[in-house]
Give the backbone structure.
Amino acid sequence: MEWQESTCYLNGEWIPLADARIPVLDRGFIFGDGVYEVVPVDTIDGSRAPFHARQHYQRLQRSLDGVRIENPFSIDTWLDMTARMIDMHPWPRQLVYVQVTRGVAKRDHPFPAGVKPTVFMNTAPWPEIPAEQIENGVPVVTHADERWLHCDIKSTSLLGNVLMKQYAIDHGASETVMLRDGFLTEGSSTNTMIVAGGNLIAPRKSVQILPGITYDAAIDIARSHGVAVELRPVPEAELRAADEVWLSSSGREVIAITSIDGRPVGPGRPGPLYRQMIEWFRQAKRADAAHWQAERRARKLAA
Ligand code: PLP
């Protein structure tokens, strides 16, 4: 199946993606007035499972609260819809996308009264993470973080991030890592963390960064294996002098950054803690998938 032939969910209906239509006055289109999630799905031990699905829908709730849109569904309903979406498509690896906008109304800035949110979900194949990137890491460039101060809300208003991703591409890099007032924030679509003296160091959660599900996972995994984790501001000089630098996201998992603005990070190769982390991350995915399958079985039995 090609992604163009997939089925999507739109406002209560499961319909061909090709047939899905929304009115042009949807506030998502007009204002970027909406929030979203991306949930990665992988095949583990022969079964497909989303990674940390519940955490994604908890974050969706947080984003909706942040922009005062009512959540149309409970987390369990979102999880059921995700399971159905996965089942409807043959791909072993998928990225399930969910978007909720404030709805359709005459164009005017104030929240419209009595409008129902527009709810959209679809899925698409998720290509393998290139082995070359896992083996050799990726180059990044840096740029001033010029985004708004609600980067903790996963808003569909992504123009700042889009411009930063294009900046990376225009400079032959894989990602743009942003700095605000001399401190590391995050990448255009990834979190950033460093390793120094054997410790994993990451900017703590604030309005300046997205509270990444993969960031949380990497930090939890590191801690559970006895790695000391420091959550604190990371000055630019420390970023540039780090032994290792990583990016993380649902779509890229954890990737080593091996050069910043053309200068190598450490020896310019993924470091020893990174190599550990990808192994630990695989184990965490396996455990999470088993948990998902058990939860699904329990839910089916209860139904
Ligand atoms: N930061 C930004 C700006 C992002 O867009 C993303 C993901 O898309 C992330 C961080 C990583 O978040 P997650 O690990 O939840 O995918």
In short: The mean pLDDT is 98.
